[in-house]
Amino acid sequence: MSTVQIKRIYEPKNEADGFRILVDRLWPRGLKREEANVDEWLKGVAPSTDLRKWFNHDPEKWEEFRQDYTFELRHCMSSVHDLVDRIKKHKTVTLLYAGNDEKYNHVVVLEKFINNLIQPNQTF
């Protein structure tokens, strides 16, 4: 059984991170690739550019964003299955994101979506 956790990419890497996957469509500002300590970058599971720009981390748009992003995830299942395959190969996987808001960001939705695929009978 794999453990999936989330973390801002700007936070220092530590051993508990396990396999680190960046799940943003854009590379994080001000961060050099060699300093990022990213094992893999999977852009395909990030929100579309239009949805990301529309949402703009506005808490008032959260519910609609969450629903729209979940819809997008359901329609890009090959990318989602790529992520699930990587998760299943590692004991611990950390999904990395660049946004400032820990509560209102796409990785919260992605983590729940992935966990429901990996453990469909669990409630989160």
TrEMBL record:
Q: Name one Pfam family in it.
A: DUF488-N3i
Which organism is this entry from? Dyadobacter koreensis
This protein's name: Uncharacterized conserved protein YeaO, DUF488 family
- Report which superkingdom the organism of origin falls in: Bacteria
